[in-house]
Automatic annotation (TrEMBL):
It is found in: Cell membrane. It is a multi-pass membrane protein. The gene is mprF. InterPro entries: L-PG_synthase/AglD (IPR022791). The keyword Lipid metabolism applies. Its EC number is 2.3.2.3. PANTHER family: INTEGRAL MEMBRANE PROTEIN (PTHR37693:SF1), PHOSPHATIDYLGLYCEROL LYSYLTRANSFERASE (PTHR37693). This is Phosphatidylglycerol lysyltransferase. Keywords: Antibiotic resistance, Cell membrane, Lipid metabolism, Membrane, Transferase, Transmembrane, Transmembrane helix. It comes from the Bacteria. Catalyzes the transfer of a lysyl group from L-lysyl-tRNA(Lys) to membrane-bound phosphatidylglycerol (PG), which produces lysylphosphatidylglycerol (LPG), a major component of the bacterial membrane with a positive net charge. LPG synthesis contributes to bacterial virulence as it is involved in the resistance mechanism against cationic antimicrobial peptides (CAMP) produces by the host's immune system (defensins, cathelicidins) and by the competing microorganisms. The chain crosses the membrane at residues 45-66, 124-146, 152-178, 229-254, 260-279, 313-329. It catalyses: L-lysyl-tRNA(Lys) + a 1,2-diacyl-sn-glycero-3-phospho-(1'-sn-glycerol) = a 1,2-diacyl-sn-glycero-3-phospho-1'-(3'-O-L-lysyl)-sn-glycerol + tRNA(Lys). Belongs to the LPG synthase family.
Length: 340
């Protein structure tokens, strides 16, 4: 990790500690200690197990996408990829650092850069598609619940959904309507000439065109691999279900008995809201949305605050610290399989 990343890590830990301290301001210490003492450790272990299975599923997706392309890509190598991704997603705005970090981790294993880019492109498309599918299924089967629970947070959920929809639509446009996408980019860049120098606009246009060309070239390799994409989609769907289940087991650990489907719906909505916040990990927005949405399940304030802290530790800080260990583990070197 660079000095900048270490500084951001320390900053995020301090910010998280500050948020927790602020949330605990209205909770008596004796109450909090009583709730901690009453925690069921087995349900907490189940919550941690869901996160572990979340990473395992992603590792299986990595192994699937590399099948037939490299020799002996170990499970240790595959598991290292999502853990490194989790670390750098936690340290960068909008989780933007996860993709480059995964690329470096794959290349450290001996995977060719072009092949690694193709794999990560496919994985990213599948992941975004499954996030959208989960959200759409939530609206279809839980519309009444969503309409009843989401009042002032509804617009945040809508904006989060729009962001994910724009991302997946852009990717599909580049894959299937390449010329149209290039023309659309040229059209969207025209207003920039009104308040930017021509040299900067030209440089930006060249960069965007290069990225579009690279993306389109890689997408041509994966469009015909329907079977592999379907398997990867199924594994990713299961992966997300494990992640969305974490708060359910946290609430069980606190002695509560919520409806599993309702908790899943709430967590899917929180994920949509977090995507709007540019601060790494959606810090601040994540905690606020959790408290607002799960207040319907937890009437006691001390339980609600403790549930929020435990959920945040499981879904954010746990991956951050495990990712630090994964980063320093030396990967096994692999050999490329000749595709000619």
């Amino acid at each position: 990790m660079s000095r900048k990343n270490i500084a951001v890590l320390i900053g995020m830990l301090l910010l998280g500690g500050g948020i927790f301290a602020y949330e605990l301001r209205s909770v008596r210490l004796s109450q909090l200690l009583r709730e901690i003492y009453r925690l069921n450790p087995w349900w907490l272990l189940a919550a941690a197990g869901c996160m572990a299975l979340y990473w395992v599923m992603e590792a299986l997706v990595v192994k699937l996408l590399l099948k037939g392309r490299v020799e002996r890509f170990s499970f240790k190598n595959a598991l290292r990829i999502p853990l490194v991704e989790q670390l750098f997603n936690s340290l960068t705005p909008f989780s933007s650092g996860g993709q480059p970090a995964q690329l470096v981790a794959l290349m450290q294993s001996g995977v060719d850069g072009g092949r690694a880019s193709s794999l990560l492109l496919m994985k990213f498309i599948v992941f975004q598609a499954m996030v959208l599918l989960n959200f759409i299924l939530t609206l279809v089967f839980g519309f009444k619940l969503v309409a009843a629970k989401f009042t002032y947070l509804a617009w945040l959920v809508v904006f989060g959904f729009i962001i994910h929809l724009v991302v997946i639509t852009t990717l599909l446009l580049i894959m299937y309507w390449y010329n149209f996408t290039k023309a659309l980019v040229r059209l969207l860049l025209r207003p920039l000439h009104w308040f930017m120098k021509a040299e900067r606009v030209t440089k930006l246009a060249l960069t965007l065109n290069q990225k579009i060309d690279n993306f389109h070239r890689e997408s041509l390799r994966i469009k015909n691999q329907t079977g592999m994409l379907l398997k990867a989609s199924l594994l990713t769907f299961i992966q997300l279900v494990f992640y969305y289940s974490v708060p359910y087991f946290v609430l069980l650990a606190l002695g509560l008995h919520p409806n599993f489907f309702e908790v899943l719906v709430m967590h899917i909505m929180i994920v949509m809201i977090i995507s709007l916040f540019p601060i790494p990990g959606g810090s601040g927005g994540a905690e606020i949305s959790f408290r607002a949405l799960f207040a319907t399940f937890v009437a006691v304030n001390s339980k609600l605050v403790l549930a929020m802290i435990l959920w945040r530790i499981m879904t954010y800080y746990l991956g951050m610290f495990i990712g630090m260990f994964a980063l320093v583990i030396k990967p096994d070197r692999v050999k490329e399989i000749d595709q000619s």
